[in-house]
Each structure stands twice: as structure tokens, then as C-alpha cells.
Amino acid sequence: MTKERPSVSISPWAALAAGLLVYYSDGKTLFLLVLPIAVHESGHWLCLRLLGCRIRALRWELSGLCIRYTGDPGRLGQAAAALAGPIAGLLYAWIAARFGSTGELSAGISLLLSAFNLIPAFPLDGGRAAEALLSRPSASYISLLSAIIVAGLGLVLFARGEGAALLIAGAILLAAQYRQEISSAMSPD
């Protein structure tokens, strides 16, 4: 009996982002960025496997790795799988911080990735956990409010000359809220 492997694909936007990252980064910087991302995504994968789910497809999107699986982990299992990535990232950061300045840089990237993903806004892990644990209207409200707060804070920081990264992240989260509402309105319950 042969083991069926999950299909793997990458969206055009994720491919473009990856290409730009490879082009503009040296090998060390790329490694210090990719390793925390790999640990984060492995946390999701491992949790789903421990919950008895079978991984069917992996698709790298601009917002991260989308994991398609079969099996029903239940609402608590879905929340656990969503939070497993940031938890793995926090554990990685704790370990990496003990390896000098290079490890500290990678730990910082992992902490930033984990903290950002814990924001309860869709499509982030915090938003997916909220969606699994709360009613859909409550999760949608929290997600929209979180996206507005991130965008507002980003606007304040941008106005103070602190850069546009958080403002761009907030705009992307607001766009995701809009897309989520449109797809929810179009899908039958």
C-alpha cells in the first residue's frame, strides 16, 4: 500500500514575494527568516496530525501556508491547530535566543510572527481560533475590530514617521475582512 502524499502548490503572489525575498536577501538573512516560518507552519501540521487529521494539500499563499485536511478535529481541535503555529514559534524563539546575536535575530523574527498571528483577525491564527470557539457573528465582529485597531495603530505610527509596515498589514487585514464577509454572504448556510 502506497502512502498518498499531499499536493503542494504556491500562489502567484506568494511566488512573487518569495522571489523578491530571495533576490534581495543574502543567504543568512533568508535562513533566519525562513526557519521561524517553517517552525510556525510545522506546529500547525503536527497538531493536525496529532488530532488524527490527514493532510491532503499544502498551498503557500501570500498570507501563509493553507493546509487542507480530512478528519474532524472538533471546535477545540481547530482552535488548538490554529494556535499551535504561534506556540511553536514562541518555543522556537525561546530556544533560538540562547544562540548569540544570530539566534536572537531569528528569535525576534519568530516572536514578531507569533505575536502578529495571535491577533484575533481573519485570516490570522488568532482569528481562526476565535472563529472555532465563538459564534460566527461574534468572531466576525472581533476580527473586524482587531483589523481596525491594527490599521489605526499603523496609521498613527506612519504619521509619526515610524514606517508603513503596520499600516499595510492593517489594510490587508481590512481587505480580508471584506472578502470574508462577501464570501459568507454568498455561501448558503
Description:
The longest helix has 24 residues. The chain has a three-stranded mixed sheet. Helix 2 packs across helix 4. The radius of gyration is 17 Å and the shape is globular. It has two domains: 118 residues, no CATH class; 70 residues. The chain is mainly alpha-helical and 189 residues long. The chain has seven helices and three strands. The model has no long low-confidence stretch (mean pLDDT 89).
The global form is: globular
Write down the domain tally.
2
Main pleated-sheet profile: 3 strands, mixed
Beta fraction: 5-15%
Unreliable residue stretches:
none
Oligomer: single chain
Order of helices and strands: EHHEEHHHHH
In which range does the helix fraction lie?
over 70%
Amino-to-carboxy terminus distance: 39 Å
Task: Decide which structural class fits the backbone.
Answer: mainly alpha
Q: Number of helical segments?
A: 7
Strands, total number? 3
Structural Rg: 17 Å
The overall average pLDDT, rounded, is 89
- Strand order across the largest sheet: 1-2-3
Draw up the topology in text.
Layout: E1 7-10, H1 12-24, H2 27-50, E2 54-61, E3 64-70, H3 74-96, H4 100-117, H5 125-133, H6 136-159, H7 165-186
Parallel strand pairs: 1-2
Antiparallel strand pairs: 2-3
Helix pairs in contact: 2-3, 2-4, 3-4, 3-5, 5-6, 6-7
Tags for this model:
3-stranded mixed sheet; mainly alpha; single chain; 3 strands; 7 helices; 189 residues; 2 domains; 70% helix
Concise overview:
The chain is mostly helical and 189 residues long.
